[in-house]
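Input (structure):
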C-alpha cells in the first residue's frame, strides 16, 4: 500500500471517529404552523363532540357539550384539532382537587397563546367530579389554553366564573392515577413554576419534574353520524 493511500485511509477513519463524537442537536418536534396564529383558529365546534386523550398513564375520553359554554367549547375544539395538547404535561395535580394541564411543550407556541383570551361564558354546569373547565385568572376574559379536570365536588368554583364545558365519560380512573407527587406549584409548593413551563417548555419539565404524566395525543373522535355507512351485505 502506498504512503498516500495509507494516509487517506487513516484520514477517513479519523473523520468517521470525529463525526461519531460530535453531538447532533436535538430537533424540536414538528407542529401545526396554524398554532402560531391564534386569531385564525376560530372554527365553531359541533354541538356535541368527543376527544380522546392518550397519556403516559392510559387513555380517557371527554365529551363536550357546546351549549354548556360555547366559547370554551369552540376554543378547545380548535386547539385539539390542531394538536395543541400533544406532548403537554399534567403539571399541577392535586389529590382530591383537580388535574391541571394545557401549556404546550414548545415555548414559541406558548408565547402567542398566553395573550389570546376568549370571552367568559356563563356558568351552566357545576364543577363536580369529572367535569372539564378552563383555568383563568381573576381578570375578565382571561381563559386561553389551560384546563383542569375536577377530582371532587368543587362547586365553590362556580361562583367565581369557572364554567365547565365537558365531562370525562371514559377512563376517569386513569385521570385519578395521574402523577401527583410534586404537589402544588412553586412558590406555594415544590411543583413546577408555571412561568418556567411557559418559557422553557418540555425541557424544563423533563429535567426538573421527570415523573409528570404527559399527553401523548389528544384527538377528536369521529362522529358516528358522519361515519360512512357499512357496505351492503352480499346475498347468495
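Output (sequence):
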Amino acid at each position: 500500500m502506498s504512503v498516500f493511500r495509507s494516509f487517506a485511509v487513516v484520514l477517513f477513519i479519523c473523520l468517521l471517529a470525529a463525526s461519531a463524537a460530535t453531538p447532533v442537536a436535538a430537533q424540536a418536534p414538528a407542529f401545526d404552523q396554524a398554532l402560531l396564529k391564534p386569531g385564525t383558529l376560530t372554527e365553531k365546534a359541533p354541538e356535541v363532540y368527543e376527544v380522546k386523550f392518550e397519556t403516559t398513564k392510559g387513555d380517557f375520553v371527554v365529551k363536550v357539550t357546546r351549549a354548556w359554554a360555547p366559547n370554551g367549547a369552540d376554543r378547545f375544539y380548535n386547539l385539539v384539532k390542531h394538536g395543541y395538547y400533544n406532548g403537554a404535561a399534567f403539571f399541577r395535580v392535586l389529590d382530591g382537587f383537580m388535574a391541571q394541564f394545557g401549556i404546550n411543550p414548545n415555548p414559541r407556541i406558548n408565547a402567542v397563546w398566553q395573550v389570546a383570551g376568549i370571552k367568559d361564558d356563563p356558568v351552566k354546569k357545576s364543577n363536580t367530579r369529572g367535569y372539564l373547565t378552563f383555568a383563568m385568572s381573576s381578570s375578565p376574559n382571561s381563559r386561553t389554553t389551560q384546563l383542569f379536570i375536577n377530582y371532587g365536588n368543587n362547586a365553590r368554583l362556580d361562583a367565581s366564573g369557572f364554567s365547565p364545558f365537558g365531562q370525562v365519560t371514559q377512563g376517569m380512573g386513569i385521570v385519578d392515577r395521574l402523577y401527583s407527587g410534586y404537589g402544588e406549584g412553586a412558590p406555594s409548593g415544590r411543583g413546577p413554576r408555571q412561568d418556567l413551563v411557559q418559557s422553557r417548555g418540555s425541557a424544563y419539565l423533563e429535567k426538573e419534574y421527570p415523573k409528570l404524566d404527559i399527553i401523548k395525543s389528544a384527538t377528536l373522535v369521529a362522529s358516528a353520524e358522519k361515519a360512512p355507512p357499512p357496505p351492503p351485505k352480499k346475498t347468495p
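Notes: The radius of gyration is 23 Å. The helical segments are 3-21, 70-81, 107-113, 172-176, 194-200, 202-208.
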